[in-house]
Write a structure and sequence with these properties.
- It is a single chain.
- With 386 residues, the protein is of the alpha/beta class.
- It is 42% helix and 15% strand.
- The protein has 14 helices and 13 strands.
- It has helices spanning 10-26, 42-50, 67-84, 94-106, 126-129, 134-147, 158-166, 218-231, 252-261, 274-278, 294-301, 333-344, 347-364, 366-376; strands spanning 2-6, 30-35, 54-57, 88-92, 111-116, 152-155, 176-178, 205-209, 236-240, 265-268, 282-285, 306-309, 324-327.
- It is globular.
- The two termini are 14 Å apart.
């Protein structure tokens, strides 16, 4: 029996779905990975091969809108699936979902699953305004065509599911379930001490990890940091991430200005975010919308309190006043006020951090999440099946 996962970026396969694939392989399935640009990611490619997985290259413009390039993606995907003949396929991110699911339907793949791990810029502000551009209507129409040919759709928060129903992208006849994000391996993200000063007091040290996109709340984070820094110079603000190929990305000039100002301590892109989380005492994600943020879950697992937005995929991770605070999206003053609470009352960092860890163990443990997904996909233990 063959299980195939279709992704748009090879390094994310291990980072976000590695434990899921491990669980599926342990059930006795032959695991296949389909992704673009595998020649550019030889380390990840070799790691996947060493794990016994079979990796296939597919041509894809991750963020482009060239219809000829996208048609090539669809055709090559169809041919690959026809040759591989997987029994199950799981696709996530926009192009694998759309072209992968359509190709799988054409290639008669029996079980076709979709994971909506975040909606991206093609859904920005649609919920609030109710208006859609021509491009958004086109993308949503393609989603509708793909999802109508899927076996089941996984959402990472109820807001995304409700929006897809409201926009009539998801037909009522297609089963849909909500999963608690991608999960986090609590054994890999241990609780570490908070950074302290020479007197042994906790340093109010804030951290944001994200692709440097405006809709991640990067601008609001830096503006709030300026306000706090003026009043409390000892406060620290860390930023981990990179400028992505995305219409919502900030430009290099903007990033250079923030770094030069001395307000932001920029770490760049990290393969391992744990040192940055260890150097922080509070995790901040002022995102406009998420699936369920993996970086928030990792910070929670390491015992960090959370400040995030009262937005889809963000609000689920915080119980207000228990393990952190929720603020409205696109607000700087409310964000800085939430930060100030931790600066003036350092005990909150310790007490709320403990609650974050507990929530992670109870709800977001990757093994619990993966057990739910494999069950919902109808995967059985082939090692012990008759």
């Amino acid at each position: 029996m063959k299980f195939l996962i279709y992704a748009n970026y090879l390094p994310h396969v291990l980072n976000f779905r590695g434990k899921l694939l491990e669980a599926i392989a342990n059930l006795g399935y032959e695991v296949h990975v389909l992704a673009p640009d595998i020649d550019s990611h030889t380390k990840d490619y070799n790691t996947l091969l060493a794990l016994g997985y079979i990796v296939h290259a597919v041509p894809m413009q991750r963020t482009g809108t060239n219809p000829i390039a996208d048609m090539k993606t669809l055709i090559v995907t169809y041919r690959l699936l026809r040759d591989i003949q997987p029994d199950y396929m799981l696709s996530y991110t926009i192009k694998p979902i759309i072209y992968g699911t359509l190709a799988a339907w054409l290639a008669k793949v029996p079980k076709r699953f979709v994971l909506l791990s975040g909606l991206g810029y093609t859904f920005q502000e649609v919920e609030e305004s109710g208006k859609r551009s021509g491009f958004q209507k086109l993308v949503h129409g393609l989603y509708q065509q793909a999802l109508s040919r899927s076996t089941k759709v996984f959402f990472q928060n109820p807001d995304d599911l409700n929006l897809f129903k409201k926009l009539q992208i998801l037909k009522s006849s297609i089963p849909a379930v909500i999963v608690n994000g991608s999960g986090v391996d609590v054994a890999d993200f241990n609780v570490l001490p908070f950074p302290t000063n020479e007197s042994g007091n906790i340093i109010p040290s804030f951290l944001l990890i994200a692709r440097l996109l405006k809709d991640k709340g990067i601008v609001e984070y830096t503006e709030a940091a300026k306000i706090i820094k003026e009043q409390y110079p000892s406060a620290q603000f860390h930023l981990v991430g990179w400028i992505d190929e995305n219409p919502a990305a900030i430009d290099q000039v903007q990033l250079d200005e923030w770094i030069a100002s001395g307000i932001i301590n920029y770490w760049g892109k990290l393969d391992d975010v744990r040192p940055a989380i260890a150097a922080s005492s509070v995790y901040v994600l002022p995102s406009y919308r998420e699936g369920t943020s993996r970086s928030v879950l990792e910070a929670m697992a390491m015992g960090r309190p959370i400040i995030t937005t009262d937005a889809p995929g963000c609000r689920e991770t915080v119980t207000e006043g228990l393990n952190g605070y929720l603020v409205p999206i696109k607000t700087v003053n409310e964000l800085s006020s939430a930060m100030e609470k931790f600066v003036v009352n350092l005990e909150l960092i310790t007490t709320m951090g403990k609650e974050s860890r507990k929530l992670t163990e109870d709800i977001y443990d990757v093994h619990k999440v993966n057990a739910f997904m494999t069950e919902e996909m109808g995967l059985v233990d082939l090692n012990h099946s008759s």
